[in-house]
Predict the structure.
Amino acid sequence: MYLETPRLIIRNFRPEDAADLYDIFGDAETMENCEPPYDFEKTEQFLASFCIARGGAVAAVHKESGKVIGYILFSEIQPGEYELGWFFNRNFWRKGYAFEACGAVIDHAFRTLKVKKIFAETIDGVKSVGLMEKLGMQLEEIQYERGTKWYFYGLKNVIENACSHMNIACVWEHNGNDTLLYAANFPGAYTRGANLEIALQKMAGEVQSYLKWKGEAIPKNFEVTVIQDAACSVDICDADSQVLFASEKEPLSQEEYIGLKNLVLKSAADFLALYEAIPDQNASVAPVRATFYGQVPRTAEEMYQHTKNVNDYYFGEIEVEADHEGAILDCRCRGFEHLERNPNFLENRVFEGSYGESWSLRKVLRRFLWHDRIHAKAMYRMARKLFGEHEIPNVFCFEKF
């Protein structure tokens, strides 16, 4: 899991989190309503066996300090039902961190994982119950066990089904008839075609795939409209692009930015997962072909390196220091860290980048999603031909080719 809130990163636990977790589990006041405080050895064992091996909990990382300040139990008890619980470092109590973290996990559980129900239990009838109710949970039962009063709370997934009709607002970039069609209200979703009509016919299926990947409900009907005509002179047939959407000049809210950033990081994580699932990353059935940027990547390894290596280029176009070292997710995270050091980055300034192309932060976010999607499709298509349809996970939920 990788989520982000204004003040926290929610991620899977790592072995190096032992010391921070011990600051939580080794504190007697924090463990007052649970069990005796852990020593460091027991903390390490619990971290390895439950948090990491079983994936039974996730870490809440304080952005400003980089410290793990929260343990969030998120464990499937039976299909579609998860238990939620939390312990936070006592130095960070009464600042809203538990609500912020648990709210993000619940939202992810319902929207993306399609969890049916979340429940929690406590003997703390004041602080913990108060937070459970603030999170929207309802009291379901009170039990007494050896003189101790237990409160059981639950929350069902009541996110409404998608609307029956949805509009896809498209930007049409074209060189003559050669077409790239972008879904402006679904950043990263796109189709291609020898003409506009062909690309329009593909768009509903592309957005259905995109929504499934995001874990969102899919409407019954789509209406596809073109809201911007962007004629150009670049090689559209080879997926060269230079368009800046009219909507990509508008400032971003903090909430909107975090949502888009989380999606860009999810895309990187899923791209890495697809790449790592391919048995032979240097095999290929693709012919040798050259385009405006050089030889087209033919193997999973070449596709992965090419996709990862645009990191410093994209961030650099909006004057953000970045690199492409290490894994795709890691270098992308570092780029965002550098971006966020600019106190005015949400203003979404428009920059004149390489070759006179206009860029903004909104465009960078969309281009990451789009570029990942282009090469993930190619990688997935090739891997299915090489290794069989059932050997390669469809992590991006692409339509069958």
